[in-house]
Design a protein that fits this description.
Shape: elongated
CATH topology: Outer membrane efflux proteins (OEP)
Mean pLDDT: 80
Largest sheet: 4 strands, antiparallel
Low-confidence stretches: 447-454, 462-498
Helix content: 55-70%
CATH architecture: Up-down Bundle
Oligomer: single chain
Number of domains: 1
CATH superfamily: Outer membrane efflux proteins (OEP)
Structural class: alpha+beta
CATH class: Mainly Alpha
Number of helices: 15
Order of helices and strands: HHHHHHEEHHHHHEEHHHH
Radius of gyration: 37 Å
């Protein structure tokens, strides 16, 4: 028995010395998961260079995502969670430290020596469960790593959506500026026509009101840019919020086709990190329940060695053991608790699976709807608006129509073009949300930004082409044609979206 106790103590010391501390760097721990899901942040040492380059070149969506993954404060706090899990693994792989006891008994006889006892004992129960405890702690470590990866993917999706809103808002400012210029030109000409006695006060007031509405819409568009930039700054983290960066103002054209819903559901089933973490939690809870049942009757067991020096100088040495008898508590409460935890994890897993399926289907439906609306704008409504403006331009040139109706048609063309841009933005935002629901980058290939031949012409570009085609420099042009020519010239300024 003495040799057995000594062997157990040596085994405990050996196992404790061989168990290393897992990585506590949450960023490094989640890097492989992020890379596998198309969100590799790259070298953390590159963060300073990325922040320094914000003022020198346009900020791309990929760069914004990299900065957010490396610099977002909330995500840094999430990364720290891996340190707690690593500490649990380290502690689970080590048995409790042995206990050393020393006793000194003083005899009542003056010529007798003190009785001295020394003992060392180890908690044996933990040694028996050491492998199982380590396995559970390592499983929890992997689960936390997956949850951290899921949090990082959420930040990446939020950053991409915020970037798209900034780009779209900047593009809308260009449209609103063109509308405001056209409205101001129309109001100025109406003022001159009114002063010449060829227009009523009502017509002049309507033109001024339209110009005021256009100015308010421009103010709102600029405010939306500021709000969108602030939201993106918050995600980028400290050092990126000085507003020195700028973005390109053209959203990419839509890909040729979208992925099938069933394929996306299959992809989500194997890609969602939070789903993998939930499944791991169920396995851990089931493993813990099995351990609880197996060791339900095993209480506190302590084994050790003690030695005593008697008052006559002799020494007594031998093993010791302490055993907790399962008379009152037979582990039923621990089993019930483990069963409840398993049932809770299983229910959470089922709820997450249902939520993922519903979310993928809903986001896919939004994506399909945005694609249909974009197609309707691009292939039907915008060409019709362009044709209407061209026909009315021709009528006005030959004094067969009222220039005011041409101005109204032009403003409607601008409004529909702005709605088209918002629809393109809605498509890309829906695609971001669908990728969030799937848990990884979508397999469909995204095409490059459109060229002038790919995207619908802006109203100013189309009207400028129509003006040249209709020969706006004919002699004998009436007042209405002069009116529209001036408006076109002012509406095709450098602020037009490309």
């Amino acid at each position: 028995m003495y040799r057995t106790s000594a062997a157990l103590l040596c085994l405990a010391l050996f196992l404790g010395a061989c168990a290393p501390l897992p990585s506590v760097d949450g960023r490094a721990g989640a890097a492989s998961d992020l890379a596998a899901h198309g969100r590799d942040p790259g070298d953390p040492q590159a963060l300073e260079a990325l922040l320094a380059g914000l003022a020198g070149q346009p900020l791309s969506a990929d760069t914004a995502i990299r900065i957010a993954l490396l610099n977002n404060p909330e995500l840094q706090a999430s990364y720290a969670r891996l340190g707690f899990a690593a500490a649990d693994v380290y502690e689970a792989a080590r048995p409790r430290n042995p206990s050393l006891s020393v006793s000194v008994l003083l005899p009542d006889e003056g010529n007798a020596s003190n009785q001295v006892g020394v003992g060392i004992s180890q908690h044996v129960t933990e040694l028996l469960m050491l492998g199982a405890r380590t396995r559970l702690a390592e499983g929890e470590y992997e689960r936390v790593r997956q949850l951290i990866g899921a949090s990082a993917l959420e930040v990446a999706a939020d950053t991409e959506a915020a970037y798209l809103r900034v780009a779209s808002a900047a593009q809308m400012v260009s449209v609103r500026e063109a509308v405001a210029r056209a409205a101001n030109t129309s109001a100025g000409l109406a003022q001159r026509v009114f002063e010449a006695g060829n227009a009523s006060r009502l017509e002049l007031t309507l033109e001024k009101a339209a110009a005021a509405d256009a100015a308010l819409a421009l103010m709102q568009a600029r405010a939306e840019v500021s709000a969108a930039r602030a939201a993106l700054n918050r995600l980028l983290g400290p050092g990126a919020g000085d507003d020195a960066w700028r973005v390109t103002t053209t959203l990419a054209q839509l890909p040729a086709a979208d992925d099938a819903v069933e394929d996306l559901l299959t992809l989500a089933d194997r890609s969602r990190l939070d789903l993998a973490a939930a499944r791991a939690d169920v396995r851990l809870r089931a493993d813990a329940l099995g351990l609880t049942r197996r060791f339900r009757l095993l209480g506190e067991v302590d084994a050790g060695v003690s030695t005593e020096r008697e008052t006559d100088g002799s020494r007594i040495t031998g093993p010791s053991i302490g055993l907790q008898l399962p008379l009152f508590d037979r582990g039923a409460g621990r089993i019930a608790r483990a069963q409840a935890q398993l049932q809770q994890s299983e229910a959470a897993l089922r709820a997450l699976e249902v939520d993922i399926t519903a979310s993928v289907r809903a986001r896919a439906a939004e994506l399909a709807s945005a694609r249909e609306r974009e197609e309707q704008y691009r292939s039907v409504l915008l060409p019709l608006r362009e044709e209407i403006v061209g026909l009315m331009q021709r009528q006005v040139n030959f004094m067969l129509d009222d220039p005011a109706r041409l101005l109204l048609a032009r403003q409607q063309q601008y409004e529909d073009y702005g709605a088209y841009l918002q629809t393109v933005r809605d498509y890309w935002l829906a695609r971001v949300e669908l990728a969030r629901a799937v848990g990884t980058a979508l397999p469909g290939v995204v095409q490059a930004a459109p060229t002038a031949a790919d995207a619908p012409s802006s109203p100013a570009d189309a009207s400028h082409q129509g003006m040249n085609h209709e020969g706006m420099n004919h002699e004998g042009m009436n007042h209405g044609s002069m009116h529209h020519q001036d408006m076109d010239h002012n509406a095709t300024g450098s602020g037009e979206p490309r």
